[in-house]
Design a protein that fits this description.
Elements: E1 8-10, E2 13-15, E3 19-23, E4 30-32, E5 35-37, E6 41-46, E7 53-55, E8 58-60, E9 65-70, E10 76-78, E11 81-83, E12 88-93, E13 98-102, E14 105-107, E15 112-117, E16 121-125, E17 128-130, E18 135-140, E19 145-148, E20 151-153, E21 171-172, E22 176-177
């Protein structure tokens, strides 16, 4: 995991707020191991220079988004469990915003698991986006988006994930950037 350069927001039980945890004004805390549920937004990171480590949080049942990154913010979002139902699991929006989404489990979102929009960019690696009634990805005017090794589709049974086979509904992303030219 990455390193924080500030305070730690750790091991809190947060229920029913508009925002579970907010990081603004260029802050760079570690937001770790929190249990957040029933909020409008689980975690919001906004403002240029805000660059937190958001790791190992359990975020469930947030009405608008589990994690929202906007306003030219950045950060590393690693190993979080982001469970719907709700609108969007992880939203990354706005020019100058760039998030590193690494190894998150995003499931049960009625509209979209991960939405990247409005010129925002992201590195999306090894995320598990299976079992969402909506779509896994929504790229609306996204900037530089790199997706590698993400799982999509439906998970295999109650025993957990199994390796993808050619006939399954599970897929594994191959390296892709939205700025790459189309193959000839």
């Amino acid at each position: 995991m990455g390193e924080s350069r500030g305070a730690r927001i750790r091991r809190n039980l947060i229920r029913g707020n508009d925002v579970g945890v907010g990081v603004t004004g260029g802050a760079a805390p570690a937001v770790e191991e929190n249990d957040i549920a029933g909020c409008v937004f689980g975690i919001v990171v906004s403002d240029a220079g805000s660059d937190p480590l958001v790791a190992s949080n359990a975020i469930a049942g947030c009405r608008s988004a589990g994690i929202l990154v906007d306003g030219a913010a950045g950060g590393v979002y690693e190993g979080n469990g982001v469970t719907g139902p709700g609108g969007v699991g992880i939203r990354v929006e706005g020019a100058g915003t760039f998030a590193r989404l690494l190894g998150n489990r995003v499931t049960g979102w009625t509209r979209t698991a991960v939405r990247i929009a409005g010129g925002a960019g992201a590195e999306c690696r090894a995320n598990d986006l299976r079992d969402n009634p909506g779509v896994a990805w929504r790229l609306d005017g996204a900037g530089d988006v790199r997706r590698t090794g993400n799982l999509e589709g439906e998970a295999a049974g109650p025993g957990g994930p199994e390796p993808a086979d050619p006939g399954s509904q599970t897929s594994l992303n191959v390296p892709l950037t939205t700025s790459d030219p189309a193959p000839d």
